[in-house]
Amino acid sequence: MMTSIFRFDLGAQRIPMATRPNGQALYEKILEALDQYDLIEIDFANRSPTPSFVDQCIGGVVKSLGVEKFKARVKLRNVSEDARPLLIHVIRSRAS
Hints:
The chain has helices spanning 20-36, 51-65, 67-73, 84-95, and strands spanning 5-9, 39-43, 74-77. By secondary structure, it is of the alpha/beta class. It has one domain (5-95). It has a 3-stranded parallel beta sheet with strand order 1-2-3. Strand 1 (5-9), helix 1 and strand 2 (39-43) form a beta-alpha-beta unit. Helix 1 (20-36) runs parallel beside helix 2 and helix 2 (51-65) runs parallel beside helix 4 (84-95). It is globular, with a radius of gyration of 12 Å. The relative contact order is 0.20. The mean pLDDT is 94.
């Protein structure tokens, strides 16, 4: 069986990574993609998102899927060193 993968390239698509509304918009796109694909990759292009964007987008996905399904179906790529602690914090806080 082949795994279907969808990639969100936040750098190439020039998706703004600030504000809750921007995070909500990407959250909705991710949920739509998860209905159609087995695995979602989100490429942060070594950019630094704001806390509100990460909480709304990534935190929302964790809350919707649960942390185990999130870890199994969503892969975060090219996360900058500055953004890693933020993403870890949001995932952990939304998992509990």
